[in-house]
Specification:
Structural class: alpha/beta
Catalytic activity: 2 a Fe(II)-siderophore + NADP(+) + H(+) = 2 a Fe(III)-siderophore + NADPH
Radius of gyration: 22 Å
GO cellular component, one term: plasma membrane
Helix content: 25-40%
Distance between the termini: 33 Å
Subcellular location: Cell membrane
Order of helices and strands: HEEEEEHEEEHEHEHEEHEHEHE
Number of domains: 3
Largest sheet: 6 strands, parallel
Main location: membrane
Strand content: 15-25%
Strand order of the largest sheet: 13-10-9-8-14-15
Family: Belongs to the ferric reductase (FRE) family.
Number of strands: 15
Oligomer: single chain
CATH architecture of the largest domain: 3-Layer(aba) Sandwich
CATH class of the largest domain: Alpha Beta
Length: about 350
Amino acid sequence: MYHLPSTALETRTYIWVPIALYLFDRLVRTARLVWNNSRSGSTTVVPIDCEVTKIRVQGSRVRKWAPGSFVLLSMPHYGIAQSHPATIASTPESHEGDLVFLLKARNGFTKNLLSSPGVSNTTLVAASEKGKAQSPGGSHRAFIDGPYGGMQGDFAAFDTVLLVAGSTGITFVLSILLDLAARAGKQKLPLRHLELVWAVKRSQHLSWFSEELEAAFSSLQAAGIEASLRVFDTGNDGSTDSADSSSRSGCSCNLSDGQACYCADKATITPRGDAHESAEIARNETKRQFAKVVPGRPIMSLIIPEVLLRAQGELGVAVCGPLGLSTAVRSTVARSITAKQAIYLHVEGFGW
């Protein structure tokens, strides 16, 4: 800006103003970061299987956020000077106000989370717990920057809601589901029907949030809202059972001998004690009560019209998952919109 002639010094205003706004933004963000992490809390890190890690941040000053919000999560124990975006799967009313995340292992930070010998093998208590989760040896400090984003539309205002998730995209969808369930228990909502479609590689992945899902669907049904869950097992084409599918995946986890997960050419699933048996029983009970497991991939061109037939008013659709799933939902919704049928669509992506 110093190349400007002396007769045009007033034009420097257009440079100083953006600089001042940027510095103000940095100052506010830094102040919020310090405030959010000024209270010393603990973080429970639990490997769910050989792919994902469930994280619960307790005692954070972050107490309010909208469904679908995300934060920048930093845990120096697993990665120095690293911050990773993570969608908040819980709501301020669930999990006693704690922040719950589900991270899929890739490289670096997320891989360290899954393979670190210091993580806890204690199962996280779900939305209906009475006390805090205990985590001997698995508690570390986490720093939260946020929350950011969140849902702008109110899905409670629709007659029918369709939630679609692919793999760990369930974190975004679950926050909406928990919010609707909590509100349905307090007041009468226009919502009449809700359906959740979740595509996973193996039906065992239902255990990621089995207790949260069971509690949410029970609350919705108690409020007179017709709610259903369809889990699509994409690793099973129907010709083999789930046990064969797990063997083909080449993954095995044994959290009792070092809290580690590994992948091999041919895996053998071994018993993991009472905690694992309890989780297995809970998962099977959950499936039996409200979840319908379907082999294969979800065909959105058939599912969305099916849901539309039951809708007596506007339909709200939210999807979070791989690009192919989101594209299929977008295309089907675009073809289904008519002058008599309005559809609200919210698409959340994995990209960053």
